[in-house]
Amino acid sequence: MTPEPDSAPADSAAQAAKAILARLYAPILPELKQVEEMYRAELSSDDEYIANLLEYIEDYSGKKLRPALLLLAGKACGKVTHDHIILGVVAEMLHTATLVHDDILDEALLRRKRASINALAGNEVSVLLGDHIFSHAFEISLECTTPVGAREFSRAMARTCFGEIMQVHNRNHFELSEAKYFEIIEGKTAELYATSAMLGAHYAGANEKVCRAFYDYGMNLGRAFQIMDDLLDMLGEESLVGKTLGSDVEKGKPTLPLIHHLAHVNEPGRKQALDAAQQGKRKELTELLHQTGSFKYAAARANAFVAAAKKGLDVLPESTAPDGMRELLYEVADFVLSREL
Amino acid sequence: MTPEPDSAPADSAAQAAKAILARLYAPILPELKQVEEMYRAELSSDDEYIANLLEYIEDYSGKKLRPALLLLAGKACGKVTHDHIILGVVAEMLHTATLVHDDILDEALLRRKRASINALAGNEVSVLLGDHIFSHAFEISLECTTPVGAREFSRAMARTCFGEIMQVHNRNHFELSEAKYFEIIEGKTAELYATSAMLGAHYAGANEKVCRAFYDYGMNLGRAFQIMDDLLDMLGEESLVGKTLGSDVEKGKPTLPLIHHLAHVNEPGRKQALDAAQQGKRKELTELLHQTGSFKYAAARANAFVAAAKKGLDVLPESTAPDGMRELLYEVADFVLSREL
Question: Which of A24-38, B202-216, B320-334 is the least confident region?
């Protein structure tokens, strides 16, 4: 699978993705609906202005990958409980809060093809609305029968923030080591997937070894997801994903293809690429990275993480997992690679 | 007591305040030291850049009124436990996180006479650092023997954010009703005091009635504190409090003296005051508000809230409270009124 943008029109590509997700989510459809309903109910306020903001924010919720992972892990390990529903809502709310704050950081004008909340209501309201959603998510997490979910999600969020701070600190530092790159993306992207999958297993009664395997499954999916994001940012088309694209390099975010390229060219090549990056010459930079196979390299890394995610599920006991759940989790992993859809 | 700035030099005023606080904090000195040590230990990271940011942030912690309230309430109701230490750290961390985010909102350049973190590291880092501190505070709160502290502090923070959003939404709306003004300040300022005091009582084994009384005590202190803040903002001197002053009205924040003034003048007077406020003519505005006794009115409201805070402590059983603790809590309430120091 290559990360090149699909040549099909955006709408039919989105339709295809929807069809795949509908199939992958089929075993957890009633539970995901409960998550959606509770999510909507929790984003509310008596104050009319705040209520309108929260209603607007509801649309930030997209494919619901984090709650879906949590529910699928639960289903694969045993029984999906009310704790799963609560924590599915928490996962989605924490993700939403980070999106609200990310838009401030990215100065994004669009989010899911609509005006972002900071474009609409200003940075101050975005900061506070994100803070409210964080706090309320933690409040909800304490409704579970045990505090494990609250503890793990608060730990995960603290790490997520560290990953994002490191990313800001390494702005325009395109020659970052791969190790630091992975430290950043494991924090800012993968930790929330990993914790969601792990908690899904835990609240279905899985033992520690299986929980750890699901944590790793989510972590590998998250790594692959972020690498695909890097690729999409440089190779995707704005109309396909509904947010401002090609902006990572222009905003000085180190991405895996560029890190690979800079590590594989001589000094003049290095200078040429850095100049192109710093001056925002996207087309020239893309051509340079194709020459060193840096996009292919990044895609191969994403593929390898997905393979590792699948392999890690070997510890899942045949006896407890319902028919076909392991294969479904394989397909969920593969779906991450099809994100140009 | 009038809110006019002390004519004594800043340093000796600060020394006097320190001396009062030293006496008020005397019964909880060892516990407050534990809170400070744990607070410092928890604001840490392996990443050098983040570690430096967190070290810088430590200085945001000032009088530690919230942990002190929590510990004093605990001491007044029974025994101070390790839960109190943990929750004292949480209260101070949540407060610190809101300060970090407030500086973005206020575009403040100074905080406690040093460069604010957003002036130093930019808005993006400030957003993320605040988010980290929030998340980590919730993580720590779960180390308590029961989840009550975590639940109450997450609920309190969610309300705090709502109060702040309402304040932003009502910017330049100087003719706000007093009811809405109080809804805002009860959220943005008083809720965290109220919850701190209440949890101090709860974890010392106080019954529901006493817990409620401590919640109200903190709420009344918070209301008084914010009104004093309004007064200081218009009447204080920058050198005395180490942050940019006179900025509330210029930034369009409705304050109690101005709300009172606008409700007590005729149409030309209203226009004159609004023009002065909108054009940032602080001296003219101050004189107008003196004429309607609006500063005196606000100071009287602050006094009344402090009186109510003290009266509410009547429910505290004589038998359990150690000698002099009730009187000490009276003095803590009075201290809020001496904030020009």
Answer: B320-334
Per-residue pLDDT, A204: 96
Quickly count: other Cβ atoms within 10 Å of residue A105's Cβ. Answer: 20
Q: Report the C-alpha gap between B306 and B85 in whole angstroms.
A: 26
Nearest chain B residue to A139, by CA: B154
Of B50, B130, B162, the CB nearest to A50: B162
Write the residue in A124, A136, A161 that is nearest to B135 by C-beta.
A161
Q: Which percentage of chain A shows pLDDT scores above 70? A: 86
Q: Considering Cα of B305, then B310, then B315, then B320, what sign does the dihedral take?
A: positive
Bridge partner residues of A111 (DSSP)? A114
Q: Are B117 and B237 in contact (CB under 8 A)?
A: no
Shortest CA gap A2–chain B (Å): 33
Residue A247 pLDDT level (bands cut at 50, 70, 90): low
Instruction: Kindly determine whether residue A134 and residue B131, on different chains, have CB atoms separated by under 8 Å.
Output: yes
Per the structure block, which two tokens stand in for A81?
Answer: 């409980």
Yes or no, beta carbons of A158 and B139 under 8 Å apart: yes
A151 touches chain B (CB under 8 A): yes
Among candidate residues A172, A262, A273, A189, the one with its CA nearest the CA of residue A230 = A189
Residue B54 in this model has a pLDDT that exceeds 90: no
Note whether A139 contacts B122, CB cutoff 8 Å: no
Q: What is the mean pLDDT of chain B?
A: 87
The residue ranking higher by pLDDT, A324 or B128, is B128
What is the per-residue DSSP string for B257-276? HHHHHHTTS-HHHHHHHHHH
Residues 6 or more apart whose Cβ sits within 8 Å of residue A320:
A77, A78
Tell me the two tokens of residue B41: 């230990």
CA distance A73 to chain B (A): 24
Nearest chain B CA: its distance from A46 CA (Å): 10
- Residue of higher predicted confidence among B130 and A116: B130
Q: How far apart are the first and last CA of chain A?
A: 12
CA distance B312 to B216: 7
Q: What is the pLDDT of residues A189-237, one digit of tens each?
A: 999 999 999 999 999 999 999 999 999 999 999 999 999 989 988 887 5
Tell me the C-alpha distance between B241 and A285, whole Å: 52
The ipTM estimated for the assembled molecules is: 0.87
From chain A residues 3-62, the ones with a CB under 8 A of any chain B CB are: 45, 47, 49-50, 53
pLDDT over 80 (residue B330): yes
Looking up tokens 């759940």 gives A325
A175: phi then psi, degrees, rounded to nearest 5: -100, 30
Structure tokens at B335: 């201290």
For residue A140, the chain B residue with the least C-alpha distance is B151
Q: What is the pLDDT of residues B86-138, one digit of tens each?
A: 999 999 999 999 988 887 766 666 665 667 767 666 788 889 999 999 999 99
Q: What's the Cα-to-Cα distance from B237 to each of B242, B245, B340, rounded to whole Å?
A: 9, 7, 9
Beta strands in chain A (DSSP E): 110-111, 114-115
Q: Is A78 helix (H, G, I), strand (E, B) or coil?
A: coil
Identify the architecture of domain A10-337 in CATH.
Orthogonal Bundle (1.10)
Under a CB-based contact definition with an 8 Å cutoff, are residues A24 and A332 in contact? yes
pTM: 0.88
CA distance to A167, A194, A235, B49, per residue, from A178 (Å): 13, 20, 21, 18
Q: Which of A17-21, A79-83, B96-100, B166-170 has the lowest mean pLDDT?
A: A17-21
What tokens does B104 get? 């973005």
